[in-house]
């Protein structure tokens, strides 16, 4: 019999739907008393420890999820990805970000060609370039060595590298390697972001890396032209070859922009933008800042998880378990959001990166075969480091809506601090919260407990916590480049697993196109109105009056002269 078009038509999906009633009769307060269950609901790989016992699930749920994985042909789909099959069918592309961190002797084919040597050729070029740059042998137009890097790019050409940079900044080894250097990012086309990114920088000591897979993204290209002007107006047009380099799959456009092709670093269409941090997109700016050896450790961490996801049985497979549990929470328990809560300030840019990774990958309305989904796929990701989040949105998580949480803790802080005489070290203070919050969510507090504490009657409803709120806890042994790579790869694979189960294409992003083309219509109108005084035409009444109001105020930057930020 032909396999059903949608996963929701399978018996395994229906068995999970039928199982929801039984789970609704349980409470985590009771489930957590079962020591065998708690032990069974853990997994460990190379120092990454996952405890998912605080999920609204029993071992029976997990068995049923494994059966769903079988029905979705999860193992086959993961294998196909690793084999370079064109699983991104709407763009006819392989999905091979795993090749970016594979060892030199690995063989991974796309279109019958082993891509690993090409990957390493670019990495070798980055290594050599970054060594020349960091040694001071690469000098700018005025003969000075360059110590500042501004990476210009948006979306996947920004968020992943920003996440890794932020996480490395306080790692002692990486911090030592980055002494005296600055790495900044320019993503938003808002001129305020231009101003911020170059504030107090001297073009004579700055290298600009233009990062764009397509080299056509409107925001990035305008920012690149703006920063080019900043360099040229200060150092002259010949400075571009020494002060601007690029990362792209479109080397033709890089050349047309005026960047020396020798200073361009390639990647390939089989690397999705949001999966590209391990390509030159991340490896180049990070190597300029921290040196290639540290970035190589990050790649090795990511590769270790690639191996793990590809070869481990599902029972021990951290990304597979995570992906299945997310499907359970979203599609069966009906919890549409996920909070990413690292108890580690170095991971403050993890949630913004995962937002793109997850929501651009799995925010789809049709199956990979184009059939409208009768269920919601994807989830709403957000997060903040603890304990900051506790003083912000946790109220809603404790007593308002049910939001499954990822708690991420690190055993050994990057920055140990202890004040003699204090009860605990600063990191232990942080981690006290990391351990307490999941239990507060799971157990809650009953009216009976409040009565026994003599809480006034009128406050009992306000102080009651229903509990039974799901979370999972990760403990990482430490947070160096290697573990940062592991964490990245865990989330990348988890999100792909979710997409494989839902039967969607997690590797295209057609949903971003409509807004882009409408912006181009508006851009034409703004130009015509500003330059030729043309009236606003062809828009709905709402947009027309908004645009008219906007255009009525004379801009502070007249269109007949170049103006750069002044701060
Ligand atoms: O690297 P590019 O081609 O400039 O694209 C930037 C981003 O734009 C998108 O295409 C849409 O947001 C992302 O997928 C991508 O990461």
UniProtKB/TrEMBL annotation:
GO molecular function ontology, one term from the record: glucose-6-phosphate isomerase activity
GO terms of biological process kind: gluconeogenesis; glucose 6-phosphate metabolic process; glycolytic process
Main location: cytoplasm
SUPFAM superfamilies listed in its UniProt record: SIS domain (SSF53697)
One Gene Ontology CC term in the entry: cytosol
Alphabetized InterPro entries for the sequence: G6P_Isomerase, G6P_Isomerase_C, Phosphoglucose_isomerase_CS, SIS_dom_sf, SIS_PGI_1, SIS_PGI_2
Top-level taxon of origin: Eukaryota
Subcellular location: Cytoplasm
Catalytic activity: alpha-D-glucose 6-phosphate = beta-D-fructose 6-phosphate
Enzyme Commission designation: 5.3.1.9
Keywords for this protein: Cytoplasm, Gluconeogenesis, Glycolysis, Isomerase
Pathway this chain belongs to: Carbohydrate degradation; glycolysis; D-glyceraldehyde 3-phosphate and glycerone phosphate from D-glucose: step 2/4
PROSITE patterns for this protein: P_GLUCOSE_ISOMERASE_1, P_GLUCOSE_ISOMERASE_2, P_GLUCOSE_ISOMERASE_3
CDD domains: SIS_PGI_1, SIS_PGI_2
Subunit structure: Homodimer.
Function: Catalyzes the conversion of glucose-6-phosphate to fructose-6-phosphate, the second step in glycolysis, and the reverse reaction during gluconeogenesis.
Assigned protein family: Belongs to the GPI family.
Protein name per Swiss-Prot or TrEMBL: Glucose-6-phosphate isomerase
Originating species: Triticum aestivum
Gene that this sequence comes from: LOC123180029
């Amino acid at each position: 019999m032909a396999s059903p078009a949608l996963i929701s038509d399978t018996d395994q999906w229906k068995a999970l739907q039928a199982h929801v009633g039984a789970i609704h009769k349980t409470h985590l307060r009771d489930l957590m008393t079962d020591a065998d269950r708690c032990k069974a609901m853990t997994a460990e790989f190379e120092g990454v420890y996952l405890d998912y016992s605080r999920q609204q699930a029993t071992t029976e749920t997990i068995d049923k999820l494994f059966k769903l994985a079988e029905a979705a042909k999860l193992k086959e789909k993961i294998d196909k990805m690793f084999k370079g099959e064109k699983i991104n069918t709407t763009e006819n592309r392989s999905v091979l970000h795993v090749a970016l961190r594979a060892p030199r002797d690995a063989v991974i084919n796309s279109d019958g060609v082993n891509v690993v040597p090409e990957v390493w050729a670019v990495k070798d070029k980055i290594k050599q370039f970054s060594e020349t740059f960091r040694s001071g042998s690469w000098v700018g137009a005025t003969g000075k060595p360059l110590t500042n890097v501004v990476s210009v790019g948006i979306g996947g050409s920004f968020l992943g590298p920003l996440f890794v940079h932020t996480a490395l900044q306080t790692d002692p080894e990486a911090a030592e390697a980055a002494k005296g250097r600055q790495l900044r990012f320019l993503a938003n086309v808002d001129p305020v972001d231009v101003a911020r990114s170059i504030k107090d920088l001297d073009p004579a000591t700055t290298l600009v890396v233009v990062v764009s897979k397509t080299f056509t993204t409107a925001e990035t290209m305008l920012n690149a032209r703006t920063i080019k002007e900043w360099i040229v107006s200060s150092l002259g047009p010949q400075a571009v070859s020494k002060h601007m380099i690029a990362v792209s799959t479109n080397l033709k456009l890089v050349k047309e922009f005026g960047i020396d092709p020798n200073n361009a670093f390639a990647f390939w269409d089989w690397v999705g933008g949001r999966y590209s941090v391990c390509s030159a997109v991340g490896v180049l700016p990070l190597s300029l800042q921290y040196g290639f050896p540290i970035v190589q450790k990050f790649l090795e961490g990511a590769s270790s998880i690639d191996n793990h996801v590809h070869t481990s049985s599902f029972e021990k497979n951290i990304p597979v378990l995570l992906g299945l549990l997310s499907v359970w929470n979203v599609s069966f328990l009906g919890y549409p959001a996920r909070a990413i809560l690292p108890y580690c300030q170095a991971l403050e840019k993890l949630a913004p990166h995962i937002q793109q990774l997850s929501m651009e990958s799995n925010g789809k309305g049709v199956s990979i075969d184009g059939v409208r989904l009768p269920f919601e796929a994807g989830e709403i990701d957000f997060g903040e480091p603890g304990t900051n989040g506790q003083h912000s949105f946790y109220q809603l998580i404790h007593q308002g809506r049910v939001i499954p949480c990822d708690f991420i803790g690190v055993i050994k802080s990057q920055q140990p601090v202890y004040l003699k005489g204090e009860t605990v070290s600063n990191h232990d203070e942080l981690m006290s919260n990391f351990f307490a919050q999941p239990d507060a969510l799971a157990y809650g507090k009953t009216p009976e407990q409040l009565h026994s504490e003599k809480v006034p009657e009128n406050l009992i409803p306000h102080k009651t916590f229903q509990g039974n709120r799901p979370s999972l806890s990760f403990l990482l042994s430490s947070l160096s480049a290697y573990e940062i790579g592991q964490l990245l790869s865990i989330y990348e694979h988890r999100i792909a697993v979710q997409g494989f189960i839902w039967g969607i294409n997690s590797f295209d992003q057609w949903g971003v196109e409509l807004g882009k083309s409408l912006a181009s219509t508006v851009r034409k109108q703004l130009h015509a109105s500003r330059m030729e005084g043309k009236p606003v035409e062809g828009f709905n009444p709402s947009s027309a009056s908004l645009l008219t109001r906007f255009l009525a105020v004379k801009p502070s930057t007249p269109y007949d002269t170049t103006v750069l930020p002044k701060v």
